[in-house]
Amino acid sequence: YYEYIGVFPGGSGANVAVSLSSLGVSTGFYGKIATDMYGLQLLTSLIRSGVNVDSVELDESKSTVETLVVLTSRGYSKILCMINDNSALSPQHFNIDAWPPKSLKGLYVGEVFHEVASEAMKSLQNENTIVIYRPLALALDAMTQKYLSLLRYRPILVLNREKTELLRKKGVEVPQTLFDKGAEHVIVTLDEEGAILFSRRTREKLR
């Protein structure tokens, strides 16, 4: 049984770009978008939301990944990603020639391949650029050390309860081990309870 079903453009990076733009922040989206119905819907949504799409590449040979999200009335969700051989997911899609924009002040790297995240972070020329890193849970579980190696670029690491517990089961102390690997700040989101901020500089815990 369901109460409502709809089709919405999204994705971690797109959602953050649109949300920041709605708050008056100048944002841009970097990535490759398929020219199928869903890809064009995403592109249109970004433009209407005031997100700069100058760095977006359109690819007629790819298809957009469809994600089915089942959300309960209590806020719990189940997610099913329908990926096929033609989905635009390869790390080779990162075009280093178009990266990074000269005016880049902040970079959000959300739930992408390790290779793509690594290329994006290491190519930043401005040391003052703020990097926010949100790894994908499944990838973090399967390749923990590989994904944590990106903390050498000193990002703000964003985790949730699930990812925090996952790391602790693997012997990673949150936040101390993450600070030792290079993270500047660690944010742990707690759903309706808000979030906790751990700062490497002050060793404070703010809730």
Give your account of this protein's structure:
This protein is α/β, with parallel strands linked by helices. 28% of the residues lie in helices and 23% in strands. It is built from 7 helices and 10 strands. It has a 6-stranded mixed beta sheet. A two-stranded parallel sheet has the order 1-2. It is globular, with a radius of gyration of 18 Å.
Short description:
The protein is of the alpha/beta class and 207 residues long.
SS-derived structural category: alpha/beta
Low-confidence stretches: none
Mean pLDDT: 86
Element-by-element helix/strand order: HEHEEEEHEHHEHHEEE
Strand order of the largest sheet: 5-6-7-8-9-10
Shape: globular
CA radius of gyration is 18 Å
How much helix is in the residues? Answer: 25-40%
Give a quick account of the main beta sheet: strands, pairing sense, barrel closure.
6 strands, mixed
Number of strands: 10
In whole angstroms, the N-to-C terminal distance is: 38 Å
Number of helices: 7
Beta percentage is 15-25%
